Amino acid sequence: MNFRLLFAAMFLVSCASWQPLGSYELQSQRNFDRDFYECVCEATVDGADNKEQVFDDCMKARGYQQI
To answer: Is residue 33 part of a domain?
Structure first.
């Protein structure tokens, strides 16, 4: 009986998360915002004729795909 109680307690403790709810989504949004901003800056600096292509290539290099 004590073994089952100990197992249940260990299971519940292992399921606890130390991250607040939504922190992964917030971090992902922050990463996307940073990457987007940096690619916009890169496209603005790199040339007048192919800004869209430079931006697309920058975002692809960071792992994003155009939908």
So the answer is: yes
- Tell me if 30 sits within 8 A of 40, measured CB to CB: no
What's the CA gap between 32 and 67, in Å, rounded? 15
Which position has the higher pLDDT, 36 or 21? Answer: 36
Q: Is residue 38 part of a domain?
A: yes
- Give me the domain span that covers residue 34: 24-67
**Residue 10 lies inside a defined structural domain of this protein:** no
Neighbours of 54 (CB within 10 A): 18
Q: How far is Cα 31 from Cα 13, in angstroms, rounded to an integer?
A: 30
Residues 6+ apart with CB under 8 A from 7: none
Q: What is the pTM of this model?
A: 0.59
